[in-house]
Amino acid sequence: MSNKQKTKYDMNSPEAKALTDEIVHGTFMKEGTMAAFPTCFPGASIPIPADESHITALDISGDGMVYGGTSGRAVHLFVGMFHGVTGIVFDLGMPAGANHCAAVCCAGSRVVSCVNGPGGGRVVATGHQGLPFDLIQEWGFGRPAIDDWGKVDGERIVHAVADSTRAMVVGITTRSLFVADPGKGKAEVIGEVPGQGRIAPGSKGGIFGKDEGDWLWRYDSAARKLARQALKLPTGAWDSAPLCWARDTRTGLLYTADGGGNLFSLDEERGFSAPLGKTLPAPVGPMAVTYDGRVFGFCGPEMAKMFCYNPAARTVTNLGVAVSVLERRRYGYVFGDAVVGRDGQIFFGEDDDLGHLWLYFPKILPR
Question: Which CATH superfamily is domain 13-129+144-361 in?
Answer without folding.
Answer: YVTN repeat-like/Quinoprotein amine dehydrogenase (2.130.10.10)
